[in-house]
Amino acid sequence: MVRPARNVRGRVGLPGDKSISHRYAMLAGIAEGPSRLENYSTGADCASTLGCMRSLGVEWERKDGEDNTIEVKGRGLALAAPACALDCGNSGSTMRMLSGIVAGQKFTSEMVGDESLSRRPMERVIRPLSAMGAQISSQEGRPPLRVAGGELKAIDYKMPVASAQVKTCLLFAGLFAEGETRIEEPMRTRDHGEVALRAFGVQLDRRSVGQGSEARIRGGQGLRGIEACIPGDLSSAAFFLCAAALFPGSQLTIPNLLMNPTRARLLDILMQMGLRISVTQLDEIHGEVVGTLQVEGGALKGAAIAGADSAALIDEIPVMAAIAPYTEQGIEVRDAKELRVKESDRIAAVATNLRLMGAQVEEREDGLKIPGGQRLHGAEIDSFGDHRIAMAFAVAALRARGETMIRGAEAAGISYPAFFQTLEDLSER
Ligand code: S3P
């Protein structure tokens, strides 16, 4: 149950970035020597990745009393055949990225997921991994996957869909392949896979190609373990940034925030909309940029999100859409049909919930058009089992008239178990 607030103020503690946590856990498992990962994501998705790594023979432990620190004993490129299915839970990142690693192993792995993950498209990794020599069976392109790994050969692959998960999967598979693998993406997506591989000592060449990029990786390279502190998750911070945007007098401090340029487009757009953001400290850790942000609410103008922006903001669009009715000119989202195959159909979920709260919304195949200047009322709405929908509507509820009841709000635990407590702590009533 979320009550309306008068303002939000305070210091935001964030979980470690989900995208980076997955990648570090996987690479630490196939590295030589130990790794120490501080501020590992507290979300259930990243626990699914750790569970799968354990099933593949990787030993790791949580360090008691230290904030979400994981120590991983790398076992090198050869993992152990799992005794049971690899349970990816709700995590598309786990299934897609790990499939690139198990494709290079000398055994067969079964990869399963929950009901939502079992509906998600896996063709995008099955096709190129099969071209590299893996044998993969699925339920008409959906999980469960059965991956018979083995000798892989390098490919030169132009991805039809802009997806960082697919790009990372193929670069990971490239580590096990004979020859040089080249992956080209049509639109620039988050580059944590490339940055993490380099952090673990892998040589990788990258360059921009049009609106996208290419990366080349030679097979057979060994990885060495790292000690890292994982930056705060920008996609989790998005909920508080959007909450701050709702109140002209808001003030937030966000320390240790991931500010990788392939993730930070949200900051530009929110500033264009009227949020005041200043960066008071900037560091680099293992190739990732981290900063402290001071945030102050001001005007709340509208925005148009399309093309490369839609790919760059894919995880932040639900919360931007959820606050769109409160903006002056509204928000229009185009070229975002990938949102329909996330943990839920996020375009339909946003439209349904906004309408239940009294908003006018135009739903389109590849996006949404939400007029500004609307007033919302509290309602009984649903998370659709999707963490980002649950959190997006908790933010929208802060400025609605009356209370909002979010069914299935516990879905937030997929990426941010402490979300509702943190939101409550920051809200002034
Ligand atoms: C992610 C990439 C995105 C994003 C997901 C995490 C990643 O998915 O939606 O939450 O860590 O690479 P796609 O690559 O499928 O767009």
Largest sheet, strands/sense/barrel: 5 strands, mixed
User: What is the structural class?
Assistant: alpha/beta
Tertiary shape = globular
Mean pLDDT: 98
Task: List cofactors, ions and other ligands.
Answer: shikimate-3-phosphate
**Number of H/I helices:** 13
Lateral arrangement of strands in the main beta sheet: 17-18-16-1-25
What does this structure look like?
The chain has helices at 18-30, 44-55, 92-102, 123-132, 164-175, 192-199, 234-245, 265-273, 308-312, 317-323, 346-356, 387-397, 419-426; strands spanning 7-11, 32-38, 59-62, 70-75, 86-87, 108-112, 135-139, 142-148, 152-153, 156-158, 177-178, 180-185, 204-209, 212-218, 227-229, 251-258, 276-285, 288-296, 303-305, 331-333, 362-364, 367-370, 380-382, 405-407, 427-428. It is an alpha/beta fold. The strands form seven sheets. The protein has a five-stranded mixed beta sheet. Helix 4 runs parallel beside helix 5. The protein binds shikimate-3-phosphate. Shikimate-3-phosphate binds next to helix 5.
